[in-house]
Specification:
With about 425 residues, the chain is of the alpha+beta class. The protein contains 13 helices and 14 strands. Helix 3 packs across helix 5, helix 4 crosses helix 5 and helix 6 crosses helix 8.
Length: about 425
Amino acid sequence: MVKKEYLVKRKALMNKAQTLINESKLEEAQSVMDEVSQLDADWDAFAQAQASFRALNSEPDEVNPLNYGGIFGGSEPEENEGETKIIKAWKSKEYENAWAKTLMNLSLTEKETEAFKVVNEAYTHTKENTSMVIPNNVSKGIWEMVGEMYPYFEDVTKTYVNGILSMIQEDTSTDAKWYDEETSTEDGKETFNEFKLSGCELSRAITISWKLKEMAIEDFIPYIQRKMAKKMGAAAGYGVTHGKGTESKSKPEPVGVVTALKKESDEPQIVRYIKGGMPTYNDIVKARSKVKSGYGTSLNIYANSNTIWNKLAAIEDKTGKPLFMPDPANEGTFRILGMLIKEDDSMQDGEILMSNPESGYHLNINKEMSMMTEDHVKSRTTDYCGYAIMDGNVITTRAHALLVEKESTDTGESETQTTEAETKK
């Protein structure tokens, strides 16, 4: 059965039921409606079977039993003997020490050697792949630091599926209507796009001198965490806000929310203000109005430090009162029109993103972060290369709005500024 065939059958049955109701043949109408219910059930079962088949038929990139996403808020897998042993080893202090000592070229104890073997043999299954799984606490620390610098990456919805993940992207939708008994229900005009989250390689390297490797393990691990968080975080944060997708000139990237909003015809979710100027109260309100009802919960404002303190902090309402207000519930944070302001280094100067990333963006983690090393004898340095695979895309642009400067150097007044000027007169 194909969807078109299902919809045709359903429409015919619904028309038949409506005719019987109009003729007061209620028992016969109920019998036809029961047929509709059965048809719907058959279609749901068919669609579920198709989805399950596609998931099984997709070829995973690599067996990775640690890819359950615990550090991103995912749930651990159902326990079995093998997984329990691997996960426990991955979270153990012995493995953390073994990992750090391996990076520092130090000898391992017997227990550390066993933990290192259990985790990394489960993770890799080819001799060519010599990357080391980053310990649970170390990886968690890295991504927590990334989340502090790039809160949009932290806030997006994440899944942890190996291989290709198909997602539905909302395009347009008709408004719901009421009908009287004599009027047949119109066919809906909801349209959806399907996109696939495959795998974009995220790889960043840091270089450490051999002298630095002489520090104590308890100092070496935080040092590696900070360095790797800056490197991996910059790429991850950029990916979910400004990634170019398959249009990237280098390697495939996730589709960033700003990129998606700018690619829409006529830019319906974007409000532009004068280049080099200040966004106004009306600009803020106009942008907020573009976010579809239902996405207001968890709606935040994302901007970099320069934009927050030189633009947002200076905006006043029509009575001269500042919109930028401290959040009494969270010391050190601020809100505008009830929206929490989050400082995100991936945003460019002048960009103000109103977004519900939980409902409006989806990121799939294909492979959790691992690390490879390479020694350079002449320079007496070691490269530590972090590696992960992930991909993301916007689920619906209606969960976002963007305030951004005009691309041209036009100094004419914007529509909202003209309106405010006329109001003051």
